[in-house]
Amino acid sequence: EFARGPNRERMASWLFSDFEPPLLDWAIERATMHPKGASFVDLDKFWAQSWPATVICCALSVNPPEAHQRRTAEKLGADWHEMEAGHYPMLNHPEEMARLLMLAAEKRVCWWGAPNAISNGRRYRWNFYRFGRP
Predict the structure, then answer these.
(1) CA distance 85 to 15
(2) pLDDT per position in the chain (134 positions), as tens?
(3) Which of 111, 106, 104, 105 has its CA nearest to residue 125?
(4) Which end of the chain is more exposed for a tag (fewer CB within 10 A), N or C?
(5) What is the dihedral of CA 27, 32, 34, 35, to 10 degrees?
(6) How far apart are CA 125 and CA 95, in angstroms?
(7) Which residues contact 34 (CB under 8 A, 6 or more apart)?
(8) Helix, strand or coil for residue 127?
(9) Which residues fall within 8 angstroms of residue 97, CB to CB, at 6 or more apart?
(10) What pairs with residue 128 in β-bridges?
(11) Which residues pair with 67 in a beta bridge?
């Protein structure tokens, strides 16, 4: 009543179609439904924002379709990557997924501080850090 999603047979043939046992069994045992309330969120604010983004299109996944992912990448001005993987690449292609996530993270610069900000009598300047490496 409060959640929706595919049953276990549909998960096996659709969401996890590129999985082999025992990974298939492991994934199905841990899969949960989506809360219905999350499906009715107003996304206008989301699409009105702008931030660095990366879309990783999984070619073996039917959901979401490639056309939707391309529209998303275009709307967000996102970098585009493709993988020969299904809907959950982090489970059966963890090394390739981690590599793509690290590529995306390394392109992003984290800004701390403010230009010539004064805090507690001390003057600070912009500090630029790459993720994980000051």
Answers:
(1) 11
(2) 889 999 999 999 999 999 999 999 999 999 998 888 877 778 888 888 878 889 999 999 988 899 999 999 998 889 999 999 999 999 999 999 999 999 998 887 544 443 334 444 444 333 343 334 33
(3) 111
(4) N
(5) -160
(6) 37
(7) 3, 4, 5
(8) strand
(9) 56, 83, 85, 89, 90
(10) 111
(11) none
Extract the tokens encoding 78: 């996102």
The two three-digit tokens of residue 102, written as one number = 């690290």
Which pLDDT value is given to residue 16? 93
Q: Which residue has the tokens 């992003």?
A: 108
pLDDT value at residue 34: 86
Question: To 10 degrees, the CA torsion angle through 46, 31, 96, 105?
Answer: 30
Q: Which residues contact residue 75 at a Cβ distance below 8 angstroms, ignoring those fewer than 6 apart?
A: 47
For residues 95 and 74, is the Cβ–Cβ distance under 8 A? no
The residue type of 70 is R
End-to-end CA distance of the chain: 48
In this prediction, residue 37 carries a pLDDT of: 80
